[in-house]
Each structure stands twice: as structure tokens, then as C-alpha cells.
Amino acid sequence: MNEVHASDLKSILHSKRANIYYLQHCRVLVNGGRVEYVTDAGKESLYWNIPIANTTTVLLGTGTSITQAAVRELAKAGVLVGFCGGGGTPLFSANEVDIEVAWFSPQSEYRPTEYLQAWVRFWFDDDLRLAAAKAFQHKRAHRIADAWKRRSLRDAGFVVTAARLDELLERTHRAIDLVPDNVSLLTEEARLTKALFKLAVDAVGYGDFTRAKRGSGGDPANRFLDHGNYLAYGLGATATWVLGLPHGLAILHGKTRRGGLVFDVADLVKDASILPQAFISAMRGDDEQAFRRGCIEALTRSESLDFMIDTLKAVAVETAALAT
To answer: Which backbone phi and psi does 225 adopt, to 5 degrees?
Structure first.
């Protein structure tokens, strides 16, 4: 059998890749030139191929190991690797983001610098950094308006009152334009998220719900939100890597947080795609695997990675232009 190497594969744009993998209780290795994960079934070992050319992110959960050869092939294909706990949260390791969310980014001296140069042109100016953060929040609100009214959500039982949603988002757009500083914008972001939780609860008839900190939420919706958000973080890390933007150059989540930009980018799609799926899955009684599959389908169907990359590019160029 002829071996296939990552360098032989045709490159697929990250924004068009379809796969995010969460693996547990397995070994990841190279077998015949292919990256595979191996599970044990009694005395037999089962080998499953990972199509690395069509993969953005691999999350390695409880009971996993990975070989150096596998890491090399994943890096050549531009796949981000994250180590995490059971169920996809929390993420461990301490390479690119911070102690809570970290990724092993593929190393390459040929990453683009165009958008990094535009980003740093405005990033050290407080007013321009705030303008970029406002642009992100406007994009986030528009994304929610589009996603929450889709027929696919209604068919799944997530029926939101359009008038309430429109009123909430219009108020948010006005507030975003008026906030004077980063702290005020974070406050508005939190207010919107809290109101969205209330809308989601009413949309599915969930009952009492209080958003709990990671690891302290006993109800399914809280657990699913934690799990799904880390999938969005994986896409956020991928989007910033594609454009060559360091994760520490945050525009909203603080200049001192090493992985703040990943949080900024993930927020573009978290409420639009992850939040509804968390409540839908909680009401249906889905397990973690079914919920994860629903999230990945929603993120892929809505071309979330495309949206993240396009938003980063637009904000970088448009805000940098204000600095000249």
C-alpha cells in the first residue's frame, strides 16, 4: 500500500473544512501515512481515519495519547490540536491562549502578515481598539438576528418571538454606538447575553434557568453551553491562525489576557449557533455526543468559520484605515 503524506494532500481552505473532532479513550497515530485514532474493542484494535485535509480542530479528551508523527502530520495540514477534559471542557495545555483555553497551533514561517500589520496599526490606540470591538458586537447582533429566525430552529422546537428579538437587538445596536469605553461595552455584552438566555428559555419552555460558571452547572443546558462554547473557541483559534493574528491582541476581553482574541472571535457565533442548540438538546434529552453533533452541523451549515475570517479581515482593514 502506498503511503500518503500531508504534503501530498490538496489543500482545502480552512473556511471550507467540515470537521471538528472530539476524541476520548483512544490513541492518535500515523498508520500507512494516514492519521488515525485507535480504539480498543476487547482484544481487537479498531482504526478510524481522520481526514486531516478537511479538518480544522482536534480536541483530545480523557484517556487519549498522540504520537509525535501524528502531531507532525496534523501541523502540516494546518490542524489545531487542543487537550481537554471529559465532554470537551475545560481545555488544558498552555501554549497559545491561556490556562483555561489553549491550543497547539501549527508552526509555519509562511503565515500571512497582511492582517497582522493592519491589526497592530490600530491596536495600540484605545479609541480605535474600542471601534473594532464595537464592530464585532454589531456583527454578533446581526448574526443572532439571522440565525434565530431560521426555519431549522423553529422546526427543532426553538420558537422565538420575532418582535421581542428585534426589539432587544435594536436596543443593543443603539447601546453599542453610545458606550464610551471597553468596560461599558462588556457590560452591554453581558446584558444582551442575559436577555438572550431569557428568550431561549421561553422559546423552548425550559423553566427556571440560571447561567452557572463552568463546572458548577448541574442542569443539561449549562453543561451543553460549556461544551459547545469550546467548539466555538476552536473555530476562533483556527480563524486567528489562518490570518496570522496572535491570540493576545484582544479588542474586548482585555489586553492582558493571553487568549482574549479567541474569546472575541468565538463570541461572533456562540449566541447565534451554540446557545439555541444547547436548549434544544437539553429539552430533547440528548447526550453529549448528540449535542456535539448538532453544534458541529449548525456551525458548518451556517459557515461560521467563513464568517469569523471575513469579520476579522474586514475589521482589520477598516479600522486600520482610520489610523492613517
So the answer is: -60, -45
